[in-house]
Amino acid sequence: MKHNRTTGNTSLAPHARRSNWSSNPWIIPAMLPADLDWSGSGNHTATGPENLGADIHEDADHYYVCMEVPGIKRQDLAIELKDRMLTVSGQRFWKRGEGEAGQPFSRTVALPTSIVWEKITARLEDGMLTITLPKAEHIKPRIIPLT
């Protein structure tokens, strides 16, 4: 998967939006995928010093949630799915004097109902967390042959 990132709150792909779009008045909510609610209505939350941004995009078969989590170890991350809400949480640690300090973070996003829940996968590679959410067959595009 290619991460073609641009600056600011703009897209990765035609349907992708930075999830903190509500702070940017130039992003038009109607351009977002219909079943992903980024309206600022409370269906997504973020806590922590960086407000853990999430890039969301899709292709014909999957939705993708990508988060930059540099320096965070696999064992310090937790991913939970409950009632269509996907939560990524964890703890960021750094050296402080003789010891270690830490800061918890959390990011929750509302998911569409059209996902094959049992086949969701997550991968952490080079500070990039990628969660792959397969689309249900009934929403994938189909070519209807003419007879």
From TrEMBL:
Pfam families: HSP20 (PF00011). Residues 45-147 form the SHSP domain. InterPro entries: A-crystallin/Hsp20_dom, HSP20-like_chaperone, Small_HSP. PANTHER family: HEAT-SHOCK PROTEIN 20 FAMILY MEMBER. Belongs to the small heat shock protein (HSP20) family. This is HSP20 family protein. It comes from Roseimicrobium gellanilyticum.
